[in-house]
Structures are given as structure tokens and as C-alpha cells.
Amino acid sequence: MYIQIKDICFSYRNSKEKTVDKFCLDIDQGEIISILGESGSGKSTVLRLLSGLETPSSGSIMINGKVMTDDRTFVLPEKRGIGMVFQDYALFPHMTVADNISFGLKGYARAKKKQRVDEVLELVNMQKFKKRYPHELSGGQQQRIALARALAPEPSLLLLDEPFSNLDADLQIKIREELKQIIKKTGTTSIFVTHDREDSRAIADRIITMRDGAAHDWDSICTVRGEFEPLSVE
Ligand code: ADP
Ligand code: MG
């Protein structure tokens, strides 16, 4: 198994309830998983735990045979090889598109860096926009650059947190088809978080529903708190 998340528990300091309660998930290499759940169900918190921005109180996370976190180990966020795309794009406003993408390529030699920037710009079909600044791009274009930036260092895992929330409905439909193709082309193992069932169906190889901090899918139900309504994907 490429990614193994086992019995992760987590509470925010000021919270009495567990925000994440024995969350389990196994992912194959190259798979695109969607975590589908209502606002407040703990989706973003799971991504923060995976990327190392929060530390679980118990449980373990392994990526490609390496422990990222368990009782004894905690790998720092920058050492995990995880790429992230957020709903607000989070591009650096004072940097050009090319510089935004280069920023994550710290260990690369200059020529290699330039080559990789060109490769990912081609991947998202944005070669012509290399010298623009984020405010000179539409929302959809900014989101493509955010994706290119996250993919540039060839992450072992790509996390996408409601990346379409700021796009209008037409664009959302167009870009989600595109997103799946781009990710599949790179073969990047990905977790895509959303509250939108249609987004999940369009993008994911497999959908996990999340409620009250726990995961539910068809094969493995870790903890079931409250009702569980199975989903079907064609
Ligand atoms: P989702 O992404 O599914 O909308 P979140 O993971 O953001 O859910 O939030 C899960 C729960 O944790 C919510 O009840 C939310 O209010 C709470 N929460 C989120 N961030 C914090 C924080 N920094 N401190 C305290 N509680 C938080
Ligand atoms: Mg969220």
C-alpha cells in the first residue's frame, strides 16, 4: 500500500470533541481519492495532519513505506514531499508566474529549474502566461498555476482542498475535467477534498465520505458515529 493512514485522532486545543476520530485510509500509488463531507466534518484538518501542519494525538501515517508520523516519529512538513493546492490559490502576488513555480524548486540547478517550470506550464497549458503576475490572470488561470506550482517538485502526494470554491459554476465544470486529466498524466497520488458530490464523482477514482471526523467507505468502515449513507459511483 502506497499510503497508509491508520487510526488518526486529533483535537484542536480549545475543542472538547475529537475533530478527527480514528480516521483510516489506504491509497494505492497513482490513485485519486476524494474525501467528501459537509463543512465542519474535518476534511481540511485531515489534510493538515497529512502535510504535518498539525500533529495527531495517536495513529500513524506512512507514505511509500516511510513513517511520517507515529508515536515516535514526526517528519517536518517540508521533508514530506507533499504538494498542496488551496481554494484561495495562495500564489505570491509580487512574483511572476514563472517565479511562483520556481519558488518550490529550491534544490534544482538553474537550467533544470527553468526546464521544469516550462514543463509544468505546458502541462497546464499556460506557457504564454509565464511573465504575468497573479492579478493579471483569471481565477481559473490562477488555479492552474497553483496546480503547476504544486506539481513542479514531483510530490509523492498531492493534496487539494476545495480548489474550485472560488470559481464560477461553468468554469468549475470545465476545470475539474481538466484537473483529472492533468493529474492522471503525471500519475501523482492525490487526495481531493470537497463538499460537492459532483466534483467528487468527476475527479475521483474512489470516494470516501467523512462525517464527524471519521471516514466511511464501502470496504472499510473504521468508526461509524451517526448515520452512514452509502454512495454509489458509476
Ligand atoms: P472542513 O474542512 O470539513 O470544513 P475543518 O477540518 O476545517 O472542516 O474543521 C473541522 C472542525 O474543527 C470544525 O468544527 C471547525 O470549527 C474546527 N476547527 C477548524 N480549525 C480549527 C482551529 N484552528 N481551532 C479550533 N477549531 C478548529
Ligand atoms: Mg475545509
Brief write-up:
The chain has 6 helices and 10 strands. By secondary structure, the chain is an alpha/beta fold. This is ABC transporter ATP-binding protein.
What this model shows, in words?
With 234 residues, the chain is an alpha/beta fold. Helix content is 29%, strand content 23%. It has helices at residues 43-51, 97-102, 110-123, 139-151, 169-186, 197-203, and strands at residues 3-10, 20-27, 32-36, 58-63, 66-69, 82-85, 157-161, 190-194, 206-211, 214-216. A 6-stranded mixed beta sheet has the order 6-7-8-3-9-10, with helices on both faces. A 4-stranded antiparallel beta sheet has the order 2-1-4-5, with helices on one face. The two termini are 24 Å apart. The model is unreliable at 218-234 (pLDDT under 50). It binds adenosine-5'-diphosphate (ADP) and magnesium ion. Magnesium ion is lined by residues 43-44, 161-162.
